[in-house]
């Protein structure tokens, strides 16, 4: 009886291992690897650029997750490789909260690349696949920018020309009417970003403080087209 149960368990384990090996073979195929890296790069990049409420970021994590899963099941990757990659991802997130003038971004990107290459069975081949995925990703991100440029950190870089009924056509509308108005930050203000004031999306700037998204803000000063805001709880009465 015990021998029969042992043989049955061993047979089930062999079937499970066979299933994992087949899935691993698909996930580690060169074409699949390139596609997963492309999905990962595009997803993470678009999330950081356009703040899609996590949709792009989740897609990117799934792509990278399947990449590491395939090589982990094949025996090439270990937890150390995943830890390096995770550290890079954390550094990129920190860049959004603690601006480091690009230092954290560079360190994070280096960890991401290092983790991807270290996890592969053949790092040299993985480097080629990563290069192909990155080249395609740049094209995809460029096309996405065309349609999503009104969102996220790029919004404040775009010159918006508006038609004024009393002053005719102008690209620099008077914003003095916003003084004292209250609103909500749409993107991180570090110190510049985008806020929703009334029903209007406005490019704003703080006096140096960092404000997280969805925080209540109020306009404290208007200097031409420069709209200065503060987080409401930080205002001294």
Describe what this molecule looks like in 3D:
It is found in: Membrane. Residues 34-143 form the NfeD integral membrane domain. One of its GO terms (cellular component) is plasma membrane. The chain has six helices and seven strands. The chain has two domains: 18-148, no CATH class; 177-231, Nucleic acid-binding proteins (OB fold (Dihydrolipoamide Acetyltransferase, E2P)). Helix content is 54%, strand content 15%. The N and C termini lie far apart (81 Å). It has helices at 2-27, 30-50, 55-74, 79-97, 103-119, 123-148; strands spanning 162-164, 168-170, 182-185, 192-197, 200-205, 216-223, 226-231. The strands form two sheets. A five-stranded antiparallel β-sheet has the order 5-4-3-6-7, with no helix packed on it. Mean pLDDT is 80; it is low at 154-171. It has 237 residues and is α+β, with helices and mostly antiparallel strands. Strand 4 (192-197) and strand 5 (200-205) form a beta hairpin. The radius of gyration is 24 Å and the shape is elongated.
Total E-strand runs: 7
Cα-atom radius of gyration: 24 Å
Q: Please give the share of residues in helix.
A: 40-55%
* Main pleated-sheet profile: 5 strands, antiparallel
Principal-axes shape call: elongated
- Discrete helix count: 6
**How many domains comprise the coordinates?**
2
Q: Strand order across the biggest sheet?
A: 5-4-3-6-7
**End-to-end C-alpha gap:** 81 Å
Instruction: Tell me the series of helices and strands, N- to C-terminal.
Output: HHHHHHEEEEEEE
């Amino acid at each position: 009886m015990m021998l029969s149960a042992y043989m049955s368990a061993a047979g089930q384990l062999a079937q499970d291992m066979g299933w994992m090996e087949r899935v691993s073979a698909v996930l580690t195929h060169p074409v699949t690897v390139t596609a997963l890296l492309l999905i990962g790069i595009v997803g993470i990049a678009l999330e950081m650029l356009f703040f899609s409420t996590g949709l792009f970021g989740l897609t990117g994590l799934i792509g990278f997750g399947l990449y590491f899963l395939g090589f982990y099941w094949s025996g090439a990757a270990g937890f150390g490789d995943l830890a390096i990659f995770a550290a890079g991802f954390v550094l990129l997130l920190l860049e959004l909260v603690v601006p480091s003038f690009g230092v954290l971004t560079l360190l994070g990107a280096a960890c991401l690349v290092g983790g991807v290459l270290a996890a592969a069975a053949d790092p040299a081949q993985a480097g080629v696949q990563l290069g192909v995925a990155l080249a395609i990703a740049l094209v995809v991100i460029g096309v996405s920018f065309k349609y999503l440029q009104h969102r996220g950190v790029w919004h404040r870089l775009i010159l918006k020309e508006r038609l004024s009924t009393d002053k005719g056509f102008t690209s620099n509308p008077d914003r003095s009417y916003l003084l004292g108005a209250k609103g909500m930050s749409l993107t991180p203000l570090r110190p510049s970003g985008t806020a929703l004031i009334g029903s209007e999306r406005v490019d704003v700037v703080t006096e140096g403080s960092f404000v997280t998204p969805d925080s209540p803000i109020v306009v404290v000063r208007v200097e031409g087209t420069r709209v200065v805001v503060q987080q409401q709880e930080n205002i001294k009465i």
